[in-house]
Amino acid sequence: MATFLLRRLGLMILTLWILSLIVFFAGQILPGDPGRAILGNLASQTSVHALDQQLGVNRPLLTRYLSWVGGLFHGDMGVSYAYRTPVEPFVRAALINSVKLGVLAFVIVVPLGILGGVIAALNEGRFPDRVISVTGLSLATVPEFVSGIVVIVIFGVSLKVLPVSASAGAGASALSQLDHLILPTIPLVFILFGYIARMARAGTIEALNSDYARTATLKGLPRATFIRRHILRNSLLPTITVIATQTGYLIGGLVVVETLFNYQGIGNLIYKAAQAKDFPMLEAGVLTIGVVYVLATLAADLLLTAFNPRLRIGAST
Amino acid sequence: MNAAAASGAAASGGAEPSDPASTLAVSHLDVAYRVRGQDRLALRDVSFTIARGETYGLVGESGSGKSTAALALVRYLPRNGRVSAGTITISGQDPLSMGKAALRDLRARTVSMVYQEPGRALNPSIRVGRQIAEVYELAGQDRAAARAASEEMLRKVQISDPRGVMDRYPHELSGGMAQRVVIAMALAASPSLLILDEPTTALDATVEAEVLDLLPPLREEFRTSVLFISHNLAVIAKMCDRVGVLYAGELVEEGPARAVFDQPRHPYTVGLLRCIPRRGQRKDRDRLDTIPGFLPAPGEEPAGCVFAPRCALATDRCRAEAPPAYPVGPGRASRCFYHEAAPDMPRSTPASLPAAPAAPATDTEPLVGIEELSKTFTARGSSVRALHSVSLSLRRGETLGLVGESGSGKTTLARVLLGLTAPDEGSVVTLDGARLSPDARRRPRDVLRALQIVFQNPDSALNRRHTVRSLISRPLSRLAGLSGARLRARLEELITSVRLEDRHLPLRPGQLSGGLKQRVAIARAFGGGPRVVVCDEPTSALDVSVQAAILNLLADLQAREQASYLFISHDLGLVRYLSDRIVVLYLGRVMEVGPAGAVFSAPHHPYTEALLSAVPSIDGQRTQRIKLEGEIPSAASPPSGCVFHTRCPRRLPSGICESTEPELLEGEPGHLIRCHIPLAELRGLQTGETVSLQGESP
What digits encode the pLDDT tens for the residues A184-204? Predict the structure, then answer.
């Protein structure tokens, strides 16, 4: 178990290192000059040059990369070109917002998706299966900006029952925050429900068709015990992996939804940073999302190991 | 006449369906699968009964409906399957008409089932003990009592450390252990009917023998009736009181097992028994008989007898009219108009040989030489010695049989020879005296051409996207360098020699039966004119009747092309039939090597002796079985001294077996044994017993 964890940890660090390389160098080869981007088209070439000098962007690439990575180890994520202040507080605030939205979507869609998938599998080929599968697939193909606008129009504009902006404003109560987050959650649930339900359905069908399911049925176990004890535990293993990758998406991939609902999450943050050529902000944001992904995958691996005795390394054979 | 025959058949079944003495009564059962809107009968008018405490065998090839019968009994047919006619009565209850709760109750208390893959029958994420205890808990026991009962049950299936085993997960058990656990689980409910569907097919011969030995006493103790389903005639002969032979969904013959196997009265049973090499049949003396043709396609409804298209005795009457079940002896019935003539039915394949095969040259230089071959696999820091200084030779035109339990290194040896696995430093593999590169990619083309393989599973060995023509042509152009008219001529010759037809050439493997696919694989292997063909379990995925045809084919091809075979099989009967010399491997070491006759008859290595005695025989010559203690040790930590000493029934009391590894010594010319017991003494210990396989034709 210890070696397993160590190896996983090593892989995580490697992943993050490669990510840092990509993020950093991709940022550098983007056309455009940070100084020019900050000062605007009308600024003189000398002042742009002076700013570049000040920002350190005309130092050699490797030096800049090393000083950036060195900073990361001290918790220094760099200084924003646009705001001229450390990016860390921006990233932190955005991350917290993103986590709020992501967690809400997660706690709604994961149980719903699993339940839907399992119900579909138990009724394979019959009416409930068709309804769930077709619904899941249809919802997953609707882009977030379409479903987002539809819910805004229906609930926010026509019915006026829910706020159309996701941000409740500073110092709002938890309840009010939740109220604001309901609408943006809906498109996310739509997108993910189909994925999760499909995986849960496939896993459950596979488990139902297995030899051990036959053994359990022929033991004469009551249906509920059979499903709970012999099916779910095995059938949801692949779903866990899918959920983990989708967790990364829920935290870091919500550019469209966050923009649409004007929510200051990390997706929105990197979108704006990219527009403003605010590389330190962009790099910090993307790297943060990378950390979230890697952690989610690690969590999934640990869960899988916990549920699946065959994966436990070092188990006696 | 029909009516009389039918009533005779019913009487022959031993009991009327309503007879309260029978545990199971199946009467006129039809089972249909709905495929593309049409019902296809998988079982047709099947009737049989099993008396209390009786073991009834259902034997048949794949597609005969054996498993369908078992699943129908417990009402676990696939969703497109249903019982379309007939009745089933299990201990007075009718599973077909009962409600869900009653069905659950029937499964929980009255019927249990064990099937082929024990590893897959157990839930991978629940500890073994819990899975057994579940059965007791269902019967109303509390957790502690259920656990104690499970432990007791495991002891009854002779698991030495029940407590330890209960805390394990299924993947931590060997196949034999897992099957014991499954049997324990099945018996936990003290069922009145135990269904065993190919319970030992996935197991090694020695393990199979142990599991089979376990069953009769348990059957006595639990007073259970047993339905034993198998394709293996010998296993059925060993285990069953009565037997029913299924062909294409019909019970074609039924009767006491001994009588049916000694004097079969249906052409199908006769044919099946003739397909199996036995009574000292050898490739250089006899060809096996075969059953021509194929099972009727699913959904095909023959007007007459189902077996008529493949039967040597069939007349117009057989093709027009379905034969009733004729009583052919006490408790026996045969669905054949010509049951009188069946035992003397003409052969489909001539017994005589097409050409007198040249005896393998014994005095020439070996074609393949293997010296001091070792192979160590390292994984996660620990190393496993799959092969340990193996030295062998293979002569021209000779078949070298390779036997041993799983994990003995058979396949590794074949892979090393083919250059697919690199052996350890110092190992030498030669062809015609020239050293071969350990890596097939570095071997010159004529070496590749000389060494070919036929795999166990033609499904995965043949590329499904290619036609038969391109599969066979490719080695002709790539290895033999043929093209144009010469390639076509050679292709023609090859497909004729493996008895394929022109119409098969444009087909893809998916459109062929298992036997035909294996013929394609053999044609492919012989394409380049190989000198050595490795046959790695070439028939174990095939049915008995198909197997015979493939064995004949291999023997004929060898006689004609003078190829040498390295023949790997777990079936000692096949090895005996085809091999000139035999190598017995155990934990990667050669325990015995010698001429086939010498290896199969005493004196031989105690391990060989045990292997041979584990093979059930159709002929009913029950020999004293040599029991092996325990499981095959792990190759990662082989026992000290003689690696076989942990299981050897003839271990010497002096302790030398534990401390010193014996040399492989030549006792008789060309016959080497690795054992501390002197040959003369072995001869004394192993006298008399005649395993049917070794008998030089009675």
Answer: 888 889 989 988 999 999 999
Answer whether A217 sits within 8 Å of B107, measured CB to CB: yes
From CA B50, how far away is CA A258, in angstroms rounded?
71
Residue A98 covered by a domain: yes
Among the partner residues B112, B120, B171, nearest to A210 by beta-carbon distance: B120
Task: Single out the residue of B205, B245, B256, B295 nearest to residue B60, CA to CA.
Answer: B245
Residue A316 belongs to a domain = no
Q: Do B124 and A215 touch (CB under 8 A)?
A: no
Chain B residue numbers with beta carbons less than 8 Å from the beta carbon of A221 are 104, 108, 134, 138
What is the nearest CA distance from B184 to chain A, expressed in angstroms? Answer: 12
Residues A206 and A93 in one domain: yes
| Distance separating alpha carbons of residues B537 and B621, to the nearest angstrom | 26
pLDDT above 70: residue B689: no
Q: Is the Cβ pair A219, B172 closer than 8 Å?
A: no
Task: Enumerate the H helices of B24-99 as residue ranges.
Answer: 66-73
Residues A182 and A298 in one domain: yes
Q: Look up the pTM and report it.
A: 0.83
Asked whether residue A79 is domain-assigned, the answer is no
| pLDDT tens-place string over residues B401-431 | 999 888 888 889 999 999 999 999 889 999 9
**Same-domain status, A210 and A245:** yes
Which of A125, A222, A234 lies closest to B125 in CB terms? A234
Q: Evaluate whether ipTM surpasses 0.90.
A: no
Is residue B508 within 8 A of residue B465, CB to CB? The reply is: yes
Going by pLDDT thresholds of 50, 70 and 90, the confidence category of residue A314 is very low
A221 touches B: beta carbon within 8 Å: yes
One-character DSSP codes across A255-274: HHHHHHTT---HHHHHHHHH
- In terms of domains, do A62 and A129 share one? no
**Mean pLDDT, chain A, as a whole number?**
83
Does A213 lie in the same domain as A288?
yes
